[in-house]
């Protein structure tokens, strides 16, 4: 392959040289690997299409026939959710052979419980769109393969007709003469040099011009069908962008708060400690010497104010981001359990460390829930469990108290619900009269 370089004038001193343009020879579409990969896609698709069509017909007909029973609903919901795997196969096929990367739809999330799965499965839009793709792709795949193969076979057959026509059986014309070439019209046979040359010209046209255009055009149609039915919708992409932007904003805010906490601890707090020590030293020196009572009272007041300010600052710094989180959420929860007024049992089974923002929210939720249990539950013990499930962190705090907690009453539980929603989390509280109270926080993991 030859690269040609366009000549450029010399750059002036102190200026950046212009970018060199590389011009590569343009190959005809017939000789490009992308064209043959597209042809391979049509071949693979026409083999998979009947399987997908059979699955779609089975899912719809079986679900409709058993609709009056719970079994029919379960089968339909399961087949709709399982249709997502068809979408995964076709997205990978489209990316590898057609060069079209299709984003995956929003992952399937089942609601808790048996009927929750039924509702989630029957309402899974990505699964239904995958089923629709099975039906649509059956038509487009068969049509694409038949047209592409027909154009290619026609072109190659016409170009090589001069060679293989000699094995054709002889045919008799109306005038009694015998001919061996292809008959394209009544008593019109492809024989002789000029007819064979015309056939070769038609074959070149079909093979090198028409077939690549038809083949690649149908490949683009297949890619658009797959992108429209197997990828996320515009609304889902918008929601995903908003979630990503919100997650980035929350992480940035958490990093900024962590930096503020370090600055307060290392800077302002250290300065207040120095001021309090100096005021204490001055008060002791003046008490040893004879000084006016007014000056002594002023120093006592200033020393007390410095100590109060230091206490308040430490409380503010702990409220921004506890320093114990620097050692991880497990260490922070162990410290929380050790300092609680009630016995606390901790079960921590998280295989990875959460993002800083998620880690901070999980700790604050645990601290608030433990504080509520100590103040209001009138129980004798608290249990904290942290586990990972379906790429989410689940934090549960349970006490054996009298129950009756109501998140809708405007208490601290409502504030926790607002806090966890900032990172696409959820809070569920179960607190029947007589207890126990179980609060579960669900947060995303990286």
Please tell me about this protein's structure:
The protein has three domains: 33-230, no CATH class; 244-320; 325-444, 2-Layer Sandwich (Heat Shock Protein 90), CATH 3.30.565.10. The chain is built from twelve helices and eleven strands. It has helices at 33-65, 70-82, 84-98, 114-122, 125-159, 161-164, 192-230, 234-288, 293-320, 329-339, 356-377, 412-421; strands spanning 4-5, 22-23, 171-172, 178-179, 183-185, 188-189, 344-349, 382-389, 392-399, 426-430, 437-444. β5 and β6 (188-189) form a beta hairpin. The protein is elongated. The relative contact order is 0.07. Residues 1-24 have low confidence and may be disordered.
Count of helical regions: 12
Structural category is: alpha+beta
| Total strand segments | 11
What is the end-to-end distance?
Answer: 45 Å
Could you tell me the mean pLDDT?
78
Q: Give the overall silhouette.
A: elongated
Unreliable residue runs: 1-24
Sheet bearing the most strands, described? 5 strands, mixed
* Relative helix content: 55-70%
Q: Order of strands across the biggest sheet?
A: 7-8-9-11-10
């Amino acid at each position: 392959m030859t690269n040609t370089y366009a000549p450029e004038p010399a750059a002036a001193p102190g200026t950046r040289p212009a970018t060199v343009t590389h011009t590569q020879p343009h190959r005809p579409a017939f000789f490009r690997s992308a064209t043959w990969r597209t042809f391979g896609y049509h071949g693979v698709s026409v083999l998979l299409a009947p399987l997908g069509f059979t699955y779609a017909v089975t899912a719809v007909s079986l679900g409709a026939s058993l609709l009056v029973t719970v079994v029919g609903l379960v089968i339909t919901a399961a087949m709709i959710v399982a249709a997502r795997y068809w979408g995964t196969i076709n997205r990978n096929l489209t990316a590898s052979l057609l060069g079209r990367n299709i984003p995956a739809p929003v992952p399937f999330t089942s609601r808790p419980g048996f009927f929750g799965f039924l509702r989630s499965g029957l309402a899974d839009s990505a699964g239904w769109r995958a089923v629709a793709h099975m039906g649509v792709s059956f038509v487009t795949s068969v049509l694409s393969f038949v047209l592409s193969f027909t154009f290619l076979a026609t072109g190659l057959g016409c170009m090589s007709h001069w060679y293989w026509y000699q094995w054709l059986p002889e045919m008799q014309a109306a005038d009694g003469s015998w001919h061996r070439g292809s008959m394209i019209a009544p008593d019109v046979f492809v024989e002789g040099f000029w007819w064979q040359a015309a056939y070769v010209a038609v074959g070149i046209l079909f093979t090198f011009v028409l077939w690549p255009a038809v083949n690649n055009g149908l490949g683009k149609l297949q890619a658009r069908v797959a992108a429209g039915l197997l990828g996320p919708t515009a609304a889902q992409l918008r929601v995903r962008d908003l979630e990503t932007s919100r997650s980035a904003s929350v992480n940035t805010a958490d990093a900024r708060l962590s930096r503020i906490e370090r600055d307060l601890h290392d800077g302002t707090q250290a300065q207040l400690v120095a001021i309090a020590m100096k005021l204490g030293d001055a008060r002791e020196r003046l008490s040893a010497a004879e000084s006016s009572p007014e000056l002594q009272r002023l120093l006592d007041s200033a020393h007390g104010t410095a100590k109060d300010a230091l206490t308040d600052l430490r409380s503010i710094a702990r409220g921004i981001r506890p320093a114990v989180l620097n050692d991880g959420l497990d260490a922070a929860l162990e410290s929380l359990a050790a300092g609680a007024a009630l016995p606390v049992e901790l079960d921590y089974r998280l295989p990875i460390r959460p993002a800083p923002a998620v880690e901070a929210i999980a700790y604050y939720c645990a601290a608030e829930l433990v504080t509520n249990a100590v103040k209001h539950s009138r129980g004798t013990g608290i249990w904290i469990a942290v586990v990972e499930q379906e790429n989410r962190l689940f934090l549960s705090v349970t006490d054996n108290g009298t129950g009756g907690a109501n998140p809708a009453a405007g208490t601290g539980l409502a504030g926790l619900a607002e806090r966890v929603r900032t990172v696409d989390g959820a809070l569920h509280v179960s607190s029947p009269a007589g207890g126990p109270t179980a609060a579960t926080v669900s947060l995303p993991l990286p």
